[in-house]
Each structure stands twice: as structure tokens, then as C-alpha cells.
Design a protein that fits this description.
The protein has 76 residues and is an all-alpha fold. The protein is 87% helix and 0% strand. The protein has three helices and no strands. Helix 1 crosses helix 3. The protein is elongated and about 60 Å long.
Length: 76
């Protein structure tokens, strides 16, 4: 009984880690696509290097929203 519980726990941990990495890569890809396609006049990386806080809030908000959408989609 203990071995089955530990095996199931590690299996769930592995699945959650895969979902987390998938959400991370999709979020970064979404931020890059938004930067290149939608915001052609605004350079997010350049503005972040200049210390623009508004751009960092915008970029983090995009990543949070993408993560929320992906987490709901992966749950079922």
C-alpha cells in the first residue's frame, strides 16, 4: 500500500512539473509573439533594459494571464 501511494505521488509530481514547464514555454512564446506582431513600435526588451516599470508590469500580466488560461485548459 505504501509503495503504491509513493508511486502515485511521484507520478502526479511529474505530471505537474510537465504542465508547469509547458505553461512557462507557452507564456514566453506568447510574450514574444505579442512583442513581435502586435507591439511593433514598442520594444519590450529595450524598455525593460531602460528600467520602464510599466512595461515590466505589462509583460508580467501577459505571462500571468497565459498561465491562468493554460492551467484551466489542462485541468479538464
Amino acid at each position: 500500500m505504501q509503495l503504491e501511494f509513493i508511486t502515485a505521488t511521484f507520478f502526479n509530481l511529474g505530471i505537474n512539473l510537465i504542465y508547469t514547464l509547458l505553461a512557462l514555454f507557452i507564456g514566453i512564446a506568447a510574450l514574444i509573439i505579442i512583442d513581435k506582431k502586435l507591439l511593433r513600435t514598442v520594444d519590450i526588451e529595450g524598455e525593460l533594459k531602460n528600467g520602464n516599470i510599466a512595461v515590466s508590469i505589462f509583460a508580467s500580466t501577459i505571462l500571468i494571464f497565459v498561465a491562468i488560461i493554460i492551467s484551466f485548459g489542462l485541468k479538464g
